[in-house]
Amino acid sequence: MGSCESLFWSLILTLSTAIITYNIIVSANASLNQELPGTSPSSTSIDPLIRMPVDTRFRNGGERNKKRLFHTAVTASDSVYNTWQCRIMYYWFKKFKDMEGSEMGGFTRVLHSGKPDAYMDEIPTFVADPLPAGSDQGYIVLNRPWAFVQWLQKADIKEDYILMSEPDHVIVKPIPNLSRDGLAAAFPFFYIEPKKYETVLRKFFPEDKGPITNIDPIGNSPVIIEKASLKKIAPTWMNVSLAMKKDTEADKAFGWVLEMYAYAVASALHDVGNILYKDFMIQPPWDKEVSKKFIIHYTYGCDYDMNGHLTYGKIGEWRFDKRSYENKPPPRNLTLPPPGVPESVVTLVKMVNEATANIPNWGVSA
């Protein structure tokens, strides 16, 4: 990178930091009704709910076998909890990256701790600065959009598309580029309900931007999106996240999914529509079959009695819950679930076991 370009990005980052500091100081009621590229009062977003074809060979004007590679980006802190999840996630990324049907390109762990850690050589990593002290108000997820802003500005990303993923994602098969025709591909979450919270959301998505249904029921992950679109969305996502957290009504309404709502709003403000792709991932124990899905998201605890009956909300005789390993990684060779437990949970535990058996120095303190 030339000295002029380095100076340019340094100035950009300095300006971005100043903007963040300003957002922290100013009132949460400051207007977000700004002109954004590609928006108009009459514009509407496309919101199809469809099954995407796995075969991507005939897109882009009918060109055969032309891959549209995407770069996988995972934001994480340097906590033990996030780190062991990232190591497992990256193990399975490498397993499937070059298999038939994959359009997976490079991989980056976007580490928002502000300093390198002991796993820089194991996992390709970009070190981003965290938000100024105290600005996340204990909600560390607010560092995610700011980390993406920095990564998109400074990193040399070869691919034209990006998959935003998370540490607690396990890839179960090669992932093709599910986006198409300028639309991102995103998983729809049942608990993201823009219509239910229209009054609150109108503070950040004014009526002149279109109907509230333009806001898709998504978070930022998993999403496959054009890099150029994400570069437009990311700063808005950051600013809306900070503004929502400072707004008492929004903070109370959205809670732990606030940053997800902020991304959905930012995407709509920039007229980036999303294909709502239900087969993108499963979330055990509620989703029981892997089938044609691409990702297992192990956000919920899996508790069962020894007869294979779910005891959700009550610690089971057999359990796998990532929260059991906040201060130390799970041991190698976890006990498999008892007979009767759904395929999704069995597959998850087997995949965790394979990864931990093959990742060097598993369980050794860094």
From TrEMBL:
It is a single-pass membrane protein. GO terms for cellular component: membrane. It holds the Pfam family HPAT. Keywords: Glycosyltransferase, Membrane, Transferase, Transmembrane, Transmembrane helix. It is found in: Membrane. GO terms for molecular function: glycosyltransferase activity. InterPro entries: HPAT-like (IPR056508), HPAT/SRGT1-like (IPR044845). Residues 70-362 form the Hydroxyproline O-arabinosyltransferase-like domain. This is Hydroxyproline O-arabinosyltransferase-like domain-containing protein.
